[in-house]
Design brief:
The protein is α/β, with parallel strands linked by helices and 506 residues long. Helix content is 30%, strand content 22%. It has helices at residues 63-69, 81-90, 117-124, 143-148, 175-184, 189-205, 220-229, 246-252, 294-307, 318-330, 332-335, 357-361, 371-382, 393-398, 416-425, 442-456, and strands spanning 2-9, 17-24, 27-28, 44-46, 51-54, 56-61, 73-74, 99-104, 129-133, 138-141, 158-162, 168-174, 208-213, 236-242, 263-271, 311-315, 343-346, 364-367, 403-405, 474-477, 489-494, 497-500. Strands 1, 2, 3, 4, 5, 20, 21 and 22 form an eight-stranded mixed sheet that branches. The relative contact order is 0.14.
Length: 506
């Protein structure tokens, strides 16, 4: 196949732009823009002036959770508890089921408004209701759902909000929320699979050809495997596993990279702290929630190195990021010679002294460009006076750090172009850019969404660029985004096969 009569942006500095692209089987053929006629009787696709880029990678997505959330009550964007309750009240009820929803953020509500079981009871009655917050670190339950736990709510690393009488208010945070979900809200595999099939179609329509999935904790590997076995898997998956499973992985001899072209076991996931929205980010002043200590992370990194796994660690607050960097620095002699590509997920608030340490230590920053404008009001409220070191994407890039972009879906929408626009513009509404000095360039934003994610997987010589021998994973846009960031996806290809909107196009 030959794609011609358009702009090919290869994302390779040696040959950044070409006029045509040859594809043979699952890979880019040799001689970009020069030897297209070397292919025997090639199919010729007229791009009609459109632009082709390497397929987009989302470096941080909870894909099964995001896919299932598409079927739940959406509370994102609610500006008051009354609006949230109205949406819940209007939601369809399934006999014998649980009312599920996601996306509320009390920080967006008027001062003094907090979610409670009592308020939720008024619109849900005796039907259990469980509503996960926008940051997925807090859970809002009604009385019927709280009763499912039979009073067993407390867990180390968790927060159970209580009233003046010591009774649970209906809000659980961090480990308390996650354990409740595991025990009482687990969905059946068939529900996940149906949702994921629909999610794959959405992802393909948005140009996504690869994801770094973070739902290893819920057994995502078996879900992906079933999709692959049925021929339904239309993107590449670099899968996380919980860090506390490292001993079992080492015992059976499993290391990073196990799998095939579409599905591979990639890395271990750990958590240092909570989030900005839930008020649980670990700060240098000692506030917040410490889920994993620096000493514990160092032990995880050493065990991961012995098992040949890189570690991805969630760190939001400046205290969490410092402790994570300290742990990687203390253990560097064990993992650096192995070439393990560790990463900090989010890196949202950094002390000035810590920002250059990512590049110095060789720790990648797996960030979410969309979080900066989405979180701006919360950051200005809770991190007042510190936001010069928040979501510091340009500073990280200019320091020499490796920066990869993702969505953190379902916290933000799985939409790479929306994330790229957020990273370049630093605003998602009519307001001026928030900390414009931290905006990335168009080139940087696309590199963080194509080139860097492939590097994190060890695939820098086979994916992420449109070069001879590389995977034919690509996206066709209706225009050149370097000229107009409102470009839209026309078609998507994975491994030489169109997975969204095969040509010809109007």
């Amino acid at each position: 196949m030959i794609l011609e009569n358009g702009l090919i942006r290869t994302m390779a500095p040696q040959v950044p732009n070409q006029r045509a692209l040859a594809i043979a089987g699952e890979r880019i053929a040799g001689g970009i823009g020069v030897h297209e006629t070397a292919l025997a009787s090639p199919e010729v696709v007229d791009l009609g002036g459109r632009t082709v880029l390497p397929g987009f990678s989302d470096s941080h997505v909870h894909f099964p959770t995001w896919a299932l959330a598409q079927t739940e009550v959406k509370l994102d964007g609610c500006t008051s508890i009354a609006e949230a309750l109205a949406r819940i009240d209007a939601a369809e009820r399934l006999p014998g089921g649980i009312i599920r929803g996601y996306g509320w953020r009390s920080g967006d509500w008027p001062d003094g408004e907090e979610p409670t079981a009592t308020r939720l009871d008024a619109v849900t009655g005796e039907t259990p209701a469980a509503l996960i917050a926008k940051d997925y670190h807090s859970l809002w339950l009604n009385s019927a759902a709280l009763a499912l736990a039979r009073g067993d709510l407390e867990v180390e690393g968790g927060v159970v909000e209580r009233d003046a009488a010591g009774e649970p208010t209906g809000v659980l945070r961090e480990e308390a929320a996650w354990r409740f979900k595991e025990r009482h809200l687990a969905a059946r595999d068939d529900a996940y699979l149906a949702a994921m099939r629909a999610g794959l179609r959405i992802a393909a329509a948005r140009g996504v050809t690869s994801v770094h999935d973070k739902d290893g904790w819920l057994g995502a590997v078996r879900l992906w495997q079933r999709l692959e076995q049925s021929g339904s898997l239309t993107l590449r998956v670099w899968q996380s596993l919980p860090a506390d499973r490292v001993g079992e992985l080492q015992e059976v001899g499993i290391s990073s990279g196990l799998g095939g072209p579409l599905l591979r076991i990639g890395y271990l996931k750990a958590f240092m702290d909570g989030t900005l929205g839930s008020g649980t980010a670990l700060m240098l002043d000692g506030s917040g929630v410490r889920i994993t200590s620096g000493e514990e992370l160092a032990e995880i990194v050493l065990a991961a190195a012995a098992a040949r796994f890189p570690v991805a660690v969630h760190a939001i607050g400046d205290g969490a990021n410092r402790e994570a960097l300290d742990a990687f620095e203390r253990t560097r002699e064990a993992w650096a010679p192995l070439g393990l590509r560790h990463r900090v997920e989010h890196a949202q608030l950094l002390a000035a002294d810590d920002l250059p340490r990512f590049a110095a230590l060789g720790i990648a920053c797996s960030v979410q460009f969309s979080h900066a404008p989405s979180d701006r009001d919360l950051a200005d409220r809770f991190w007042a006076g510190k936001t010069g070191g928040a979501y510091a994407y340009r500073s990280l890039w200019e320091s020499g750090a490796v920066v990869a972009n993702g969505s953190d879906a379902p916290i933000e929408e799985l939409d790479p172009l929306a994330g790229i626009r957020a990273g370049v513009r630093r605003t998602i509404d009519e307001r001026p850019a928030w900390h414009q000095e931290q905006a990335v360039s168009v080139q940087q934003a696309f590199e963080a969404t194509t080139v860097t994610p492939a590097w994190l997987c060890g695939d820098e010589r086979s994916r992420g660029k449109l070069l001879p021998g590389y995977a034919a994973d690509l996206v066709v846009l209706d225009r050149d985004p370097w000229d107009d960031l409102e470009a839209r996806v026309v078609a998507t290809m994975v491994a030489g096969r169109w997975v969204h909107n095969a040509p010809p196009w109007d």
